[in-house]
Design a protein that fits this description.
The structure holds two protein chains of two kinds. Chain A is mainly alpha-helical. Chain A is built from twelve helices and no strands. Helix content of chain A is 73%, strand content 0%. The chains are: A mainly alpha, B alpha/beta. Chains A and B meet through helix 1, helix 5 and helix 12 of A and strand 1, helix 2, strand 5 and helix 3 of B.
Chain lengths: 270, 326
């Protein structure tokens, strides 16, 4: 136990170092912080613009859709802040940071994440959370104790889910260095997919992203359960409650993918 | 028990090479081809070889970065990959071209961070840091961000970083690469001092043979993934026929270069006023005495064999000629 405690202290000091390092470029840090809100604001503005020309989107009103957007963007932005930089894995391998991390007495993944947390993305996560809180407050939700509990566990589950997607897709670069575009199409594609009620998508594309990869459980189904709406696509209401479980499955997949990937790296070299 | 044990250590990489317009062929490259070595506690081992000989790959297998394709490696009795984090506490690693330091933070902060990473008690940390500050002369740039350090300063920082947790084995991959002469001297001097204490085992790979001559009693030459020489530098010279030379400067040229038993003339230079003898069986004293009898000597110097020339010759010979243990 003492062992675990001191490892935790080690990780905490890695994070502190990263914060100090970024603060050493103060002006550019502030500029980045402000500039980074942009992307997330854009997601929300897009939704508002769409509702400027239509009253409903895939059968959902603006206030209902905002719950979906809020869950998606707060989850994505927070995951992007915490683990998004793992997409730079090929660079870590190329610059030797990966080897440097492997000769230290700590696990490799947390070290890489903590040594490169993009704190400038903090503003996005805060903005995403603000949108979520506003949406939850204004959507006219009938707050039963169950829904309160759901509203508490679903946002972290969304973070875990997106984080798992980031890690899983990044491990592809252990095998194929130029896999960045593919990884982006899944991570950013997933964010865009979860920003709208999935009823707006059709056919195999919806089936693949929503249930093949599990993105429907990030925002769509939980939003239905919070709003007390039946699924227009016909799935039972309890589906909205499984999203924490789905997030845990995703995390296990990510952990496994990382383990296998790192073993592959070690057997092939840089 | 040896600190480092390698038995039939082998590493193969699969590379894809373009074969035709679209087709790619898989090809297996053997980087390390069955290395057996024992390194004892306190030894200073120089590991040299041409580019691509397998030096860094071997070091990566010993430090837990790469998994051997076959064979066994043990360092401090641990398996490098399986026991990676436990081994990391007992070894120090300096990769000349990769950094353990935090680029944007003052050097001092990196050391403080590594204390947490390696869970070193504050007292032990302070004592080791004080010693490194003294020996490596760090005080002038402890508060400078690493990104602003010169390469030589950074390398001194890297050495300190690798030693703060009191490792039993220090692995150095090209520690002097790219350094200026003064920094090289500083690094070598420090490593020599470290080795003199005898409680740390040192394995270094290098391109710079002066590192080896200054630091290592034992020299392992690796080529095409195989050990082609394992022994002292003197043994290397003996085996590959390189000899010490006596250079004699004369006041006036002799009509004929003198014939000295056991020391044939290698070169005649400066219109016969400089003679170079190779020492085969004769001693320096014998050569000097014999020369003094026939000519007026202005100066005598002794030239140690050039290890680079020997190693270059070694590298040129390829294939089965290089099987170890001849």
């Amino acid at each position: 136990m003492a062992e675990g405690g001191s490892a935790l202290r080690a990780y905490r000091s890695l994070l502190g170092a990263q914060a100090r390092a970024q603060a050493s470029y103060r002006t550019s840090f502030v500029v980045d912080l402000v500039g980074n809100v942009g992307a997330t604001v854009f997601d929300v503005v897009t939704v508002l613009v769409i509702f400027g020309v239509t009253r409903e989107l895939g059968g959902f009103t603006l206030r209902e859709t905002l719950v979906v957007v809020g869950l998606s963007s707060s989850g994505f932005a927070t995951a992007d802040l915490l683990v998004g930089n793992i997409e730079r894995l090929p660079r870590y391998v190329r610059t030797g940071l990966f080897d440097a991390v492997l000769v230290r007495p700590l696990a490799a993944l947390p070290q890489l994440l903590l040594m490169d947390v993009p704190l400038r993305k903090l503003s996005r996560a805060v903005f995403g959370l603000a949108v979520l809180l506003y949406a939850l407050a204004s959507a006219g939700i009938d707050w039963t104790p169950g829904r309160v509990a759901l509203a508490v566990v679903v946002p972290p589950a969304a973070v875990v889910f997106f984080a798992s997607v980031f890690v899983t897709t990044a491990t592809v670069s252990f095998y194929w260095v130029d896999s960045g575009e593919l990884a982006n199409s899944v991570t950013y594609g997933g964010r865009d997919f979860t920003s709208y009620p999935i009823t707006v998508y059709g056919g195999w594309f919806r089936a693949l992203f929503a249930y093949g990869m599990g993105f429907a459980f990030v925002s769509y189904h939980p939003a239905l359960a919070l709003l007390g709406r039946a699924d227009p696509l016909g799935l039972p209401p309890w589906v909205g409650w499984v999203s924490p479980g789905v997030a845990l499955v995703a995390a296990s997949v990510a952990a496994l993918a990382w383990r296998v990937g790192i073993r592959h790296y070690r057997s092939t070299g840089s | 028990m040896s600190v480092i044990e390698m038995d039939g250590l082998r590493k193969e990489f699969t590379v894809r090479v373009r074969a035709g317009r679209l087709r790619r062929e898989k090809r297996t490259v053997t980087a390390v081809d069955g290395v057996d070595l024992r390194v004892e506690r306190g030894e200073m081992l120089g590991y040299i070889g041409p580019n691509g000989a397998g030096k860094s790959t071997t070091l990566k297998m010993l430090t837990g970065v790469l998994m051997p394709s076959a064979g066994v490696a043990r360092v401090c009795g641990l398996r490098p990959v399986a026991d990676r984090t436990r081994l990391a506490l007992r070894i120090g690693v300096v990769f000349g071209q990769r950094s353990q330091l935090w680029w944007d933070l003052p050097l001092r902060d990196s050391f403080g961070l590594l204390r947490h990473v390696y869970r070193v008690p504050a007292g032990a940390h302070a004592a080791r840091l004080a010693r490194c500050r003294d020996l490596l002369d760090l005080d002038g740039f402890l508060d400078t961000p690493v990104r602003q350090l010169s390469l030589g300063q950074r390398m001194r920082g890297e050495l300190t970083a690798a030693l703060l947790h009191g490792p039993e084995v220090l692995f150095l991959d090209e520690p002097t690469i790219g350094l200026d002469v003064v920094s090289k001297q500083a690094v070598r001097g420090f490593l020599a001092e470290l080795g003199r204490a005898g409680d740390i085992t040192l394995v270094l790979t290098t391109h710079d043979l002066a590192d080896i001559e200054r630091l290592c009693r034992r020299l392992v030459v690796i080529d095409h993934g195989r050990v082609v020489h394992d022994g002292s530098i003197a043994e290397l010279h003996r085996r590959y026929g390189s000899r010490r030379m006596v250079v004699a400067e004369l006041d006036a040229a002799l009509p004929e270069p003198p014939v000295l038993p056991g020391a044939p003339v290698q070169r005649v230079e400066a219109d016969g006023r400089r003679l170079v003898f190779a020492l085969e069986s004769a001693s320096v004293a014998e050569v000097v005495a014999a020369l003094a009898g026939v000519a007026t000597l202005r100066d005598i110097s002794i030239v140690e064999p050039d290890i680079e020339a020997v190693v270059a010759r070694l590298y040129e010979r390829k294939g089965p000629l290089l099987t170890p243990g001849v």
